Amino acid sequence: MLFRYLLFLTAFTLFAGQAKPAAVLVIQFHNASEYPDLNWVGESVSETLRAEFSAANQIVFDRDSLAEAMRRLSLRPGADFTKATLIRLGQALGADYVCYGSYEAALPAGDSQLKDSSIQLSAHFLDLRKLHEGPDLAEAGKLSDLSRLEEHLAWQSLKYLDPEANLPLEDFLSPKKFTRMDAEESYVRGLLSTNREQRQKWFAQAVALDPQFVSPAFELGKLYLRDKDYRQAIQWLGRINASDPRYAEARFRMGLGAYAMADYNGAARYFTDVLKQFPMNEVYNDLGAAQSELNLPSAIDNFRHALSGDPNDPVYLFNLGAALLRNNSFEEAAKRLQGVVDRNADDEEADTLLSRARRREQTAPGSKPLAPARLKDNFDETAFRQLKAMLQPKGGG
């Protein structure tokens, strides 16, 4: 995976002044209470820690990466893993640290409402670089104050992960950072649901309960994009502001939505925004696709950027070959398109364009693209940031 970004070996100096981030795997906290209805709390704590670690420039593996690693290791979600298993999970993803924990809950005497319970969070770290355990961290309070407890736990954790960082506690305990408990519960239940309609219902409910809570808006945007309701997708994803660690991914997905609606100028703007922060092959490719529709010569340059990062990718080969053919650059077009056919002899579209290149069929200036560009819809920020961290000198530059 990391090979795909070797194009950017020369770009690492852009980040040389920053402290070297750590790759952190956060496991869903284990429910050690007697109340299964509080299982959602474990994912809530983990989600908050992931968000705050990412906002503090750490490399954080998302839920999908964790789920894939667990699948490969045949591990059951929600289990209380041994330290040996946690180490295996972390090593499978190339993590520097594994963060895990548990929580207890207790109801006041005579009370049966879980919302009135008290809760204690316990967090632990495994340092996989030094192979030893980190500090044991704890927070305790009312369940109704869960968001505040999570933010304080995130602050404690980051003081361990990056002791030199300037992390004012008041930034974490600002009221604008807190989410209503019922909104957080709805959001997490949406994350954990496997039913498309139920997920949308839970996320919409979370937004209705706490309109300032952008995490469910981000998930709604992704759901609508999958459903090809591009206007709704762009509307929800547009709620993610520039200070949010998901901003670049949101803009990337907005670019995909705009492209699908034939708003190529909009798509180009979104992809250009993403490139300022993440000069990834996928983004160069998709920007090239939007520029190709706009008949901009810079499309070829961006297709070249993408291909330079991964010379064997058939999507990049196809897009560059088609753009070169449209530009009447027959020899190089044939070379690129031949690379596509070599990798997939059943690619009829590439074979047709290859034949045209060999016949040296001229294309009039200003003509439409000879074939629809092939887009990349995966945004693998974690792999890119892992490579960036590998290239940084020890000590941060």
Describe this structure in words.
The chain is of the alpha/beta class and 397 residues long. Among the domains are: 20-163, Rossmann fold, CATH 3.40.50; 281-378, Serine Threonine Protein Phosphatase 5, Tetratricopeptide repeat. 52% of the residues lie in helices and 10% in strands. Strands 1, 2, 3, 4, 5 and 6 form a 6-stranded mixed β-sheet that branches. A hairpin with a 4-residue loop joins strand 5 (118-127) and strand 6. The two termini are 25 Å apart.
Q: Kindly provide the name of the CATH class of the domain at 20-163.
A: Alpha Beta
The structure class reads: alpha/beta
Radius of gyration: 24 Å
Number of discrete helical segments: 17
Fold-level CATH name of the domain at 20-163: Rossmann fold
The sequence of SSEs as H and E is: EEHEHHEEEHHHHHHHHHHHHHH
Query: How many β-strand stretches?
Result: 6
* Averaged pLDDT: 92
Describe the largest sheet.
Answer: 6 strands, mixed
Outline type: elongated
Low-confidence stretches: 1-17
| CATH level 4 superfamily of the domain at 20-163 | ABC-type transport auxiliary lipoprotein component
SS strand fraction: 5-15%
Helical residue percent?
Answer: 40-55%
- Which CATH architecture of the domain at 20-163 would you pick? 3-Layer(aba) Sandwich
Distance N terminus to C terminus? 25 Å
